[in-house]
Amino acid sequence: MDKGLSPSMFIGVRGNGIISFGSGQPDLPPPKEVLSCVPEPEDFKYGLVAGQVYLRKALSKEFKGSASDDFVITNGASEALDLTLRAIGKPKDKILIHKPYYYSYKPLIELNHMEPLYVETYKGKIDTDDFEKKVHKAKAVLINSPSNPTGRIQDIKTLKFIEKVTDDLDIPLLSDEVYKDLIYERENYMLSGPHVVTINSFSKTFDMCGARVGYLYSNDKPIVNEAVRLKTYTSMNTNILAQRMAYHATKVPRAFVDGQVKVWKQRRDLIYEGMCRLGLDVWKPEGAFYILPKIKNPRKFVWGMFKKHKVITYLGEWFGADDRVRFSYALDVEKIEEGLKRVGKYLKKN
Ligand SMILES: Cc1ncc(COP(=O)(O)O)c(C=O)c1O
């Protein structure tokens, strides 16, 4: 009956009393500076493949030691990930990712005819011994901290260790930093080095998922040049009006982001404490807006919650976590409370 379970059957589904803990899309509005951006005739012309200069210059001010030519503006972090993988690898190369992983990683690597190689984690934290054992087989490493789907951050010691090992091996280190601004426990530690490719997005920090603006940044010139070459023959420029919106987002006072983090943290506390009360085995999220409880028979749960209780959740197996279910808490407090009540009802009966 639940054979059709896939993320696409839930993405964008709303209304009719449904509570969606599904899609990782902030429910908060983007900054007013972004909303006041109106189209101009120039926005309808083709733009530079690498991205508009004003946006790349604005970004280069955020990254010490960077120049505007080190950036490629992309259709979200999604395109930045795809271009980077294609730029660095060839068929059969292995890309080391930590498990559980963002659900696009495995298909993206495979679509590019490469193979994922998994490093184990304990409560979402990378097992550095396992990392050291496997990294020698990898063409590149992909790190995501804070993580989707665990909400966990990697210890700074671990991140420095990964920087050093990949630097010694001279292999690309891809750092998916789309949640870098949404951390509750400490400042972000941004991975850096000669072969680090930082992948980021305006989707999550500025609530601009549908605008589709992201970027990659690297001091590794051949990677950046190859990404631009590939983009020339695929999507060409990223939407110009959306790039202007993103430019305005770079000028938004830090207080905007701090305000968002306050909201996410309040919701994190609510859902984490609620799940603990329900007796669920769960790791405390330290960033992003996801939580990944262990659930008996996850398929039955996801299907039953949807069909009988009108609650959308995502199967852990899409993220490489077979015995878990992912909840996004990017929704308001009343909905989180109601959703938890319905989960409680389900758990009592099953
Ligand atoms: C870890 C991670 N990377 C990349 C993306 C893609 O983001 P974008 O909207 O910028 O394409 C997401 C979206 O959920 C994500 O969670």
Report on this structure.
The protein folds into two domains: 7-24 and 254-349, Aspartate Aminotransferase, domain 1, CATH 3.90.1150; 39-250, Aspartate Aminotransferase, domain 2 (3-Layer(aba) Sandwich), CATH 3.40.640.10. 37% of the residues lie in helices and 14% in strands. The protein contains eleven helices and 14 strands. It has helices at 32-35, 53-60, 76-88, 105-111, 128-134, 156-169, 221-232, 240-250, 254-277, 298-309, 333-349, and strands at residues 19-20, 71-74, 94-98, 115-119, 121-122, 125-126, 140-144, 173-176, 196-201, 214-218, 290-291, 311-312, 314-315, 325-328. The protein has a seven-stranded mixed beta sheet, with helices on both faces. The chain has a three-stranded antiparallel beta sheet with strand order 11-14-13, with helices on one face. It is globular, with a radius of gyration of 20 Å. The mean pLDDT is 96. Bound molecules: pyridoxal-5'-phosphate (PLP). Pyridoxal-5'-phosphate binds at residues 24, 76-78, 102, 144, 148, 176, 178, 201, 203, 209, 214.
Offer a few descriptive terms.
350 residues; Aspartate Aminotransferase, domain 2; 7-stranded mixed sheet; 11 helices; 14% strand; binds pyridoxal-5'-phosphate
Describe the SSE topology.
Blueprint: E1 19-20, H1 32-35, H2 53-60, E2 71-74, H3 76-88, E3 94-98, H4 105-111, E4 115-119, E5 121-122, E6 125-126, H5 128-134, E7 140-144, H6 156-169, E8 173-176, E9 196-201, E10 214-218, H7 221-232, H8 240-250, H9 254-277, E11 290-291, H10 298-309, E12 311-312, E13 314-315, E14 325-328, H11 333-349
Helix pairs in contact: 2-8, 3-7, 9-11
The chain binds pyridoxal-5'-phosphate (PLP).
